[in-house]
Design goal:
366 residues, conserved putative lor/sdh protein from methanococcus maripaludis s2 fold, Elongation Factor Tu (Ef-tu), domain 3, OB fold (Dihydrolipoamide Acetyltransferase, E2P), 5-stranded mixed beta barrel, 5 helices
Amino acid sequence: MKTFFGSILILLGVVGIGAIVAGLKYRSMMAPQFLPPESPTPVVIAQPGSSQIRQASTAIGTVVAPRSIQLKTESVGTVSTVHFQSGDVVQPGQVLLQLDTAVEEAMLQSARAAQRIAMSTFQRIKKAMETQALTESDRDQTEALLAQSEAEVKRIEAIIRRKTLVAPFPARAGLLDIHPGQYLPEGSLVTMLQGVDSYVFVDFMMPQQVADYLRVGNEVLIKHDGASFPAKIVATDSQSDRVTRSMLARARIDSPPETMHIHDSVRVDVEYGLSVPSMTVPSSALRSSPAGNFVYVVESDREHPDRSIARQRTVIPGPSVGNEIAILSGLQANETIVADGSFKISDGTWVAPSELTNTALQQRRN
C-alpha cells in the first residue's frame, strides 16, 4: 500500500512541475518582444554623369582584297612550264605558266617568212611604179598581200601570248595544283591571285536607318582578334537590298595586321546621327528584368524623412561609354542613383551611403 501511494505522489509531482514550466513559457510568449533596431543597407550612391553620344550600330563585315583575280587559261593546251609555287609573291609581268606553243612557233616562223616575201614584192612594185612600168592595181594587190601577212603574224603572236600567263599586279598566289604535261581546257582555273597592298577593304551591310546618315569619308571602327582599327568609308552601293532594305558599304583599313586575312569576318562598329546630350550611369547600376531595364533612384522616405529609400525606375539605356552606359530617358540630372550594390536591395529598401561612395565619386570625376 505504501508503494502505491508513493507512486501517486511522484506522478503528481511530475505533473505539477510540467504545469509550472508551461505557465512560464506562456508568460514569456505573451511578454512584449524587444527587437534590435532596423539598420539600412549600405550601397554606393552617385549622381548620373553627362556625355555627348551618338547612336551606334554593329555589323559583321568581310575583309576584301583591293585587287583579286582568278587566274585562268584563255585557250586549250598542255602545260609546258610552271614558274611559281603556292603562296609565292609574284610581281607584275612575271611569267607564271606557259602552255606548249611549239605548233604556234612554227606557224609564226612561216608567217614571218611570208611577210618578208610580201614586203620585198611590195618594194619592187613600188620602184616599178616610179617608171610607170606597172599599174596602180598591181601596187594595191601587193600592198594588200603585205597587210594580210602582217595581220597573220600578229594573230599568231596573240595566240602565243594567250598561252603565256603573267602576273598583272603584285600579288600572293594561292594553292596550285597544276603540273607540266597536264592538259588544260579553255577556262581552267590555275590559282587565285590576291593583291599585296598596304590596305584592305571591309564590306558590310548597313541597316536602312544607318545608311540614311552615313556618307563617304565617315569613320567606323573595325574589331578583329581583340584589337580595334579605324577605317573610313570609301564607297556605298547605288541601291539597297530589295529584301532586307540594307545597303552595302565599303571601308578601307590602312596597314592591316598580319593576322587579318582576306575573307576574314570582322566586327564593324558604326556611330551615326548627331551628337545629343545624355546621362551616363555605371554599368553596375543598370539592372534587367522581364519588364525591362531599370535603376534604383535614392529618395527620401515620406514616413521617415530622416531615411533614404531606393525606388525602382524604368529607363531606356543607350550605347556603352567605357565602363558606363548612356541613359536615353527615365532619369533626371539632379537625381541620385544606386551606383553599386543594387543586387542586394529591392524597391523600397532603406539604404545609406557606404564607405566606398566617396571613392566612387572621386573616380567618376577623374
